[in-house]
Design a protein that fits this description.
Pfam families: Methyltransf_11 (PF08241). This is Methionine biosynthesis protein MetW. It comes from Chitinophaga niabensis. The chain is α/β, with parallel strands linked by helices and 232 residues long. The protein has a single domain, classed as Rossmann fold. Helices cover 32% and strands 22% of the residues. Strands 3-2-1-4-5-7-6 form a 7-stranded mixed sheet, with helices on both faces. Helix 1 runs parallel beside helix 2 and helix 4 packs antiparallel against helix 8. The longest helix has 11 residues. The radius of gyration is 17 Å and the shape is globular. The model has no long low-confidence stretch (mean pLDDT 97).
C-alpha cells in the first residue's frame, strides 16, 4: 500500500536542519500544522519559530502549539521581517500552489541572511509514475487542472529558475527524494534514496551565497513574459 505521508519528506527536512549551525530564527511559509517547525525545534531548541499561514484551522493549531504565526498572503504581501534577518526559511509543499513565485522568491531572498538556508519541498513533475502517465497520454498527478496545484517542478528547472535570475545566488547544499509510486513504503524509501530525481517529492537545501539584488522582480519585465505577475 502506498504511504502518501512520505510525500512530505519529513526525514529529508530533518536531515537538512541537522546540518544548519545554531540558527536563531526558523521561518516556515505555509506552516500547516507546524510539523516542520517542530522538527526544527527538536534539533535547535533555542531557535525562534515563526509560521506564515492563511488557513484559519491551521492558524489555530499553530497557536495552540505556541508557534508565533503571521497571517498573510505570500503571493502579494511583504514578509514582515527586516532584510537579511532570518537564518532558515522553509517552504514545504507550498510553491506548487502559487502563481506568484517571482514575488515569493524575492521576499525569501530579501529576508534570508547570506549563509542562511532555504529548504524547499515540492512534488516532482519528473517522477517515475508521472513519466509513465505521460507516456500513455495521461496528466501527471502533481499538476492536474481540478486540483490546487498550478506549477510543476523538476530538480534542474528549479535550480535554473533560482540561479538563472541572479547568478550564484543560491548554492545547492543537499538534495533528496521522498516516496516512489506505486511501491509500498519499504521499497519506496529505498528507491527514492537511489533515484531521487524519480521520486514523488523532491527536496532542496539551498544556501544563500551572495547578497540579493532584487533581480526576481526585474526578470519578468526584462524577459517580457507577458503575464500579469504581481511584482509589488
Amino acid at each position: 500500500m502506498i504511504d502518501k505521508g512520505l510525500n512530505y519528506g519529513r526525514q529529508s527536512i530533518r536531515t537538512f536542519l541537522k546540518t544548519v549551525s545554531s540558527p536563531k530564527t526558523l521561518l516556515d511559509l505555509g506552516a500547516g500544522s507546524g510539523n516542520d517547525l517542530l522538527i526544527g525545534k527538536s534539533i535547535h531548541p533555542e531557535a525562534t519559530l515563526t509560521g506564515v499561514e492563511c488557513y484559519e484551522p491551521n492558524i489555530e493549531k499553530l497557536n495552540k502549539l505556541g508557534i508565533y504565526t503571521v497571517k498573510l498572503n505570500i503571493e502579494k504581501d511583504c514578509l514582515p521581517f527586516e532584510n537579511e534577518s532570518i537564518d532558515v526559511v522553509m517552504a514545504n509543499q507550498i510553491l506548487e500552489h502559487c502563481k506568484e513565485i517571482w514575488w515569493i522568491t524575492h521576499e525569501v531572498s530579501r529576508v534570508l541572511k547570506v549563509g542562511g538556508s532555504f529548504i524547499v519541498g515540492v512534488p516532482n513533475l519528473a517522477s517515475f509514475h508521472n513519466r509513465i502517465l505521460l507516456l500513455f497520454g495521461r496528466q501527471p498527478t502533481c499538476i492536474q487542472n481540478n486540483s490546487a496545484h498550478v506549477r510543476g517542478y523538476t530538480k534542474k528547472d528549479f535550480l535554473n529558475f533560482l540561479n538563472g535570475v541572479q547568478e550564484d545566488l543560491y548554492k545547492l547544499q543537499g538534495f533528496k527524494g521522498s516516496n516512489f509510486y506505486p511501491f509500498p513504503p519499504l521499497i519506496a524509501k529505498t528507491l527514492s534514496s537511489i533515484l531521487p530525481t524519480h521520486s514523488v517529492g523532491i527536496f532542496f537545501h539551498l544556501v544563500k551565497n551572495t547578497p540579493y539584488k532584487g533581480k526576481f522582480l526585474e526578470y519578468p519585465i526584462k524577459k517580457q513574459l507577458e503575464t500579469n505577475f504581481f511584482l509589488g
